[in-house]
Every structure is written in C-alpha cells, then in structure tokens.
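F.,

This is the one I mentioned.
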C-alpha cells in the first residue's frame, strides 16, 4: 500500500506563491505522456457546435477543445493565465490519473478484487480516474473511447462538461453572464469556495457512484485522506492565486483566504462523507448475498457493505497489541470498550467551524453529530437512525457554509478559531493519529489565514515564530516512520508531546 504518496501531500509546505515550474515529468507507466499528447492531437476535435443542440445530454468534449496555444495552451511565460492546459499536462497529477490504472498496484488491485475487467476498463475506477462524462457514471458509452479516457482528470472533470458552454465561453458576452446563467450550461462556479471544495470532495472523499471502500483499501488503494487547504495548496495552480486572496480580503493585501478555504473545506468534506454514508446505509445488503455469491467483484459498481470500515479510524483495527496498553490507559471517550471509532478523519474539528457560525452546537450530547457517532460506534448500527441523523447534520453543514461564504472574516474571528481549535485539538490528538493530524492541518491553515489577514508581509512576529516552531514539532511527531504506512509508534507518548505543543500554541494566543 502506498499511503506515503498521499501522506506526503498533507505535510508538504504549501506552495502559496504560485510560481509555476515547467518541469516535464514522466510517470514511468504506460501509456507515456508524449503518446497521450499525440493521441489527443489526432483524435480530439473541438465540438463547439454541440452548443447548438441544447437538449442533447451534456457530455465532455475533451481537452483537445482547450489546448490550443491561443486558448489555454500558452507557454507560461506570462503567468498561468492562458497556460492552464500546459500547467495541467506538465505538472498536475490529475493528467496522469488514467495512466496510473495501468501500474502494478492497479493491476494487483484488479486481481485481488477479482474484477471482471482490468482496472483501466473498470467503471469502478474510471468514475474517479477518468470521468469523461457528466454525470461521470457512464464511461462505457461512445464518449468513453480510449483517447477520451487518456485525458484522466481533465478540465471538464472540475469545470463541468463543456458540450453546451464551449461555444458560449469564447464569445465576448461570457464575462457578463452570471454564475447562475453559466451553471445552466453546465459550467461550474469554482470561484465559490463551497462549490470548489465540493468538486474536489466528490473524488477525494467520494460520492454515491464514486466509492473507495475498505475492499479497495485491502486490495491496495491509497487511503483517501483529503483536507481541502492542503490539497488545494499542493495542486499546481493554473490560476492566479492572488485573485483568490483578493476576493477574500477585507482590504487589499489582507486576505482570509486560507482560513476560509480551510473552514469551508471542512464542511464540504464532511458533507460529502455523509452523502456516501447515507448511500451506503440505503444500499447495504444485510445478508451480504451479492458479496458472497459473486465470484467476481462487479467492475461497474462498488458493493455496499454495512457498516463500512473505510469510515472508521484505520488504526483502531490496524495496530499492534502492546502491553501495557496505552489505549486502555487512555480510555475510549464516549465509546464502549471495543466500539468502532467512526469518522476520525473528517469530523474531529468540524464542531468548532459549525459553532463559529452560530448554526448549531455539534459538541453537545444531543447534537446530530453526537447521535451519529454513538450509533456508528455499535457493531451493527441502525440504518434508519443513521440516515436521519446524517441528513440532519448535512443540513446544518450546508447552512453553516452559506453563512461563512457570505462573511468577510476578521482577524479576531480567525484568532478565536485558532484558540478554539487548539483546545479541541488536545482531546482529538489523545484519541487518534487522525485527530492529531487534522488538528495540525487545521492550525497550519488557520495560522496562515491569520498571518495573511493581519497583512504582515515583513518578518513573522515573535508570536508567529513560536507557533510555527510548535507546529513543526507536531508535524515531526506525526510522520510515519520509514518503511511504514501507518503510525507504527503513535502511542500515548507522541500524543502527550503533541498536547504540550498545543498548550504552547494556546498560551501564545492568550
Ligand atoms: C472515489 C474516487 C476513486 C475511486 C472509485 C478510485 N480511485 Fe484511485 N485514487 C483516487 C484519488 C483521489 C487518488 C489520489 C489519492 C491521494 O493522493 O490522496 C487515487 C489514487 C490511486 C492510485 C495511486 C496513484 C499514484 O499516483 O500512486 C492508484 C494506483 C489508484 N488510485 C488506483 C485505483 C483503482 C485500480 C481503482 C478501481 C479499482 C480506483 N483507484 C478507484 C480516487 C479514486
Ligand atoms: C482538479 C480540478 C481542475 C482541473 C482538472 C482543471 N481545473 Fe481549471 N481551475 C480549477 C480551480 C480550483 C480553479 C480556481 C478557481 C477559479 O478560478 O475558478 C481553476 C481555474 C481555472 C481558470 C481560471 C478562471 C479565472 O476566471 O481566472 C481557467 C481558465 C481554467 N481553470 C481552465 C482549465 C483548463 C483549460 C483545464 C484543463 C487543461 C483545467 N482548468 C483543469 C480546477 C481545475
Ligand atoms: C474526477 C475526480 C477528481 C476531482 C474532481 C479532483 N481530483 Fe484530485 N485527484 C484525483 C485522482 C484520481 C488523483 C490521483 C492521480 C494520480 O496519482 O495520478 C488526484 C490527485 C490529486 C493531488 C495529488 C495527490 C498526491 O498524492 O500527490 C492533489 C493535490 C489533488 N488531487 C487535489 C485536488 C483538488 C484541490 C481538487 C479540487 C479543486 C481535486 N483534486 C479534484 C481525482 C480528482
Ligand atoms: C473494523 C476493523 C477495520 C478497520 C476500521 C479498518 N480495517 Fe483494514 N482490514 C481489516 C481486516 C479484518 C483486514 C484483513 C486483514 C487480513 O486479512 O490479514 C484488513 C485489511 C486491510 C489491508 C490489507 C492488509 C495489509 O496489511 O496491508 C489494508 C491496506 C487495510 N485494511 C487498510 C485499511 C484502511 C486504510 C482503513 C481505514 C480507512 C482500514 N483498513 C480500516 C479490518 C479493519
């Protein structure tokens, strides 16, 4: 398993300056990048006239429609604008997303899952790795030809199927159209941070039809641990990052962007996970008939298993039994001994965000989140109860996101978040590596937001330096040891050391 790939993204320093390096990279897997470029030029032609057929099902036109030098295929000499295609094809892993389905891990996954097709032909995988349609769940139709699949996760996977907007978007009046008018043509408003986070979460958390469950993990899929601010910072930007900052600043040069994106990303990721939870609860087969009888795993769908281990803290099951046991010493918080710790990755810091919008108190014992967590801790959770609690929680999250979106965050508000998170982070870190890592990611993003919004472009203040030093220490405790894809020695000791650093951060903020 190759968690280290994903894992590194979380801990990479955010490349916020947005300097684009045009290094050619080679994936080392078939088909090679150069072949893909050649194939694209041969096979894909812009389908601008499809806009004239409004009632035709929306579909992808392919990157061939975007890559011309005078459209999005510039050479990057004048910054990212106009060179979006070049940045994507040369630096963005999304362009490789289809080719990885030919690699050794994917081939073995297909074998272990007993797929009736190789990974690069399985809708199960293509829905996220090469979704060439909108909705993406029909790769087996004529638009899903090999040349289209080679695009991997391409422009339209994020910006929306272009069959209806390709033509209009090059006309002079496009800029005057409202986001709603554009959305009617299938163009997604990714300027809006909730929409943007949801676009990413659809694949990086999953949604009905796009599901990395524990079967896929056990077969070798890297763990999906998505956190919006880290992934956004680590995606090679083919847009001007300063635009984002300017749109979210109370005044020029002072931007709350990183903090806002972090908060909205928390809400959107959790919302996506709940969508998947509801879907799993609705579609699970009590008797596991499908799973047991099928000699082969269907390559066109994910089998709903209940409860789904992928939603539970991995290291609750995957760990060595130590004596004396630090887990027994720590206790199980609100769970019974041996109960499942559900939602350890996406939910520990969420209550702080929701509370700050005044929408609900998710920390209280009778909140939708508390009820859900209690139900999911049982070995066979009641599906109806889960669905109703999950839906209630989704409504709270959506409402919070809309409130946040319309707000201009102030330095005081962001500082209050940081303080709140440093407190919640303490108990989250005691409970699991997931909680500790989310705490670190959250504090890193909020601290960046706080630094930006106070407009300190000079040398960081003494306070800020202290916080950075503590964050760096926390990070070093979280890294997996060499050769491990899990926190082999994340015991009460690092948790205690992390707590001490969190306390320091809290004290600095006083
Ligand atoms: C819900 C969407 C989703 C589905 C379904 C899915 N994947 Fe992935 N896959 C991802 C994402 C997202 C990543 C990147 C993970 C990261 O870096 O955080 C990824 C990464 C991978 C990687 C590692 C790539 C690398 O650069 O090392 C392999 C291999 C892979 N997937 C194979 C598969 C196969 C085979 C299937 C089908 C059996 C599949 N995936 C199904 C979303 C998905
Ligand atoms: C993984 C998702 C993703 C993919 C793939 C992707 N984009 Fe983007 N794109 C974004 C995000 C996020 C932004 C920043 C938000 C914004 O400006 O709307 C953006 C911004 C842009 C912008 C700037 C819009 C503006 O008004 O400043 C253009 C143009 C663009 N993308 C074109 C492309 C093209 C062309 C491709 C394919 C070669 C592509 N994108 C692939 C996510 C993606
Ligand atoms: C259609 C599905 C899809 C969407 C939408 C999507 N991604 Fe991805 N993303 C993937 C897959 C699949 C990979 C793995 C590609 C590979 O390893 O070759 C990936 C890889 C990445 C990576 C590299 C991870 C690593 O381990 O190096 C980053 C960063 C990333 N995505 C960020 C984003 C962001 C930010 C957004 C939203 C703006 C987004 N993605 C939207 C499917 C998607
Ligand atoms: C409720 C217990 C449980 C949880 C939670 C759980 N797993 Fe597993 N996992 C298992 C069992 C049982 C096996 C099969 C082990 C065997 O056959 O040796 C397994 C196997 C695996 C394997 C293959 C065996 C190996 O050592 O490489 C991987 C990888 C894996 N799980 C990853 C994960 C990830 C990632 C998560 C969290 C998202 C997770 N698991 C959560 C019980 C669990």
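My design for it:
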């Amino acid at each position: 398993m190759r968690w280290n790939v994903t894992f590194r993204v979380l801990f990479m320093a955010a490349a916020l300056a947005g300097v684009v390096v045009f290094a050619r990279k080679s994936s080392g897997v078939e088909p090679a990048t150069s072949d893909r470029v050649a194939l694209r030029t041969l096979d894909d032609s812009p389908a601008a006239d499809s806009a004239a057929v409004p009632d035709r099902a929306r579909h992808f036109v392919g990157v061939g429609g975007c890559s011309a030098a005078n459209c999005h295929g510039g050479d990057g000499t004048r910054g990212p604008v106009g060179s979006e295609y070049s940045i994507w094809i040369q630096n963005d892993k999304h362009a490789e997303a289809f080719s990885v389905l030919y690699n050794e891990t994917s081939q073995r996954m297909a074998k272990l899952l007993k797929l009736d097709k190789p990974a690069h032909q399985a809708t199960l995988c293509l829905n996220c790795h090469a979704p060439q349609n909108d909705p993406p769940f029909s790769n087996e139709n004529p638009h899903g030809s090999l040349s289209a699949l080679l695009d991997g996760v391409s422009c339209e996977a994020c910006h929306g199927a272009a069959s209806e907007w390709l033509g209009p978007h090059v006309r002079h009046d496009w800029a005057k159209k409202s986001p709603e008018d554009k959305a009617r043509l299938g163009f997604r408003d990714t300027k809006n941070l909730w929409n943007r986070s949801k676009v990413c979460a659809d694949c990086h958390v999953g949604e009905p039809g796009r599901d990395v469950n524990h079967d896929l993990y056990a077969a070798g899929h890297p763990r999906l641990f998505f956190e919006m601010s880290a992934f956004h910072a680590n995606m090679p930007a083919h847009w001007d990052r300063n635009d984002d900052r300017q749109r979210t600043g109370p005044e020029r040069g002072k931007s709350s962007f990183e903090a806002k994106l972090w908060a909205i990303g928390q809400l959107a990721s959790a919302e996506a996970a709940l969508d998947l939870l509801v879907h799993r609860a609705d579609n699970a087969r009590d008797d596991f008939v499908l799973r047991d009888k099928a000699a082969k795993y269907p390559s066109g769908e994910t089998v709903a298993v209940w409860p789904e281990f992928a939603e539970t803290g991995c290291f609750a099951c995957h760990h060595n039994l130590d004596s004396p046991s630090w887990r027994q010493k720590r206790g199980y918080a609100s769970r019974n001994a041996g109960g499942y710790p559900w939602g350890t990755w996406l939910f520990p810091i969420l209550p702080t965000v929701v509370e700050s919008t005044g929408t609900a108190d998710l920390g209280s014992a009778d909140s939708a989140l508390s009820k859900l967590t209690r139900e999911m801790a049982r070995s066979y959770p009641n599906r109806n109860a889960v669905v109703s609690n999950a839906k209630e929680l989704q409504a709270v999250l959506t409402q919070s996101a809309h409130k946040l979106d319309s707000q201009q965050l102030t330095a005081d508000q962001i500082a209050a978040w940081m303080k709140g998170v440093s407190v919640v982070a303490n108990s989250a870190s005691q409970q699991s590596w997931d909680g500790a890592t989310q705490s670190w990611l959250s504090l890193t993003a909020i601290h960046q937001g706080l630094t930006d919004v106070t407009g300190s472009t000079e040398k960081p203040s003494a306070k800020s330096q202290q916080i950075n030093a503590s964050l760096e220490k926390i990070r070093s405790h979280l890294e997996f040891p060499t050769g491990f894809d899990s926190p082999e020695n994340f015991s009460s000791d690092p948790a205690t050391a992390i707590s001490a650093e969190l306390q320091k951060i809290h004290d600095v903020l006083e």
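Residues 63, 66, 72, 84-85, 88, 94, 153-155, 157-159, 190-191, 196, 238-239, 243 surround heme C (ligand 2) (CB under 6 Å).

Talk soon.
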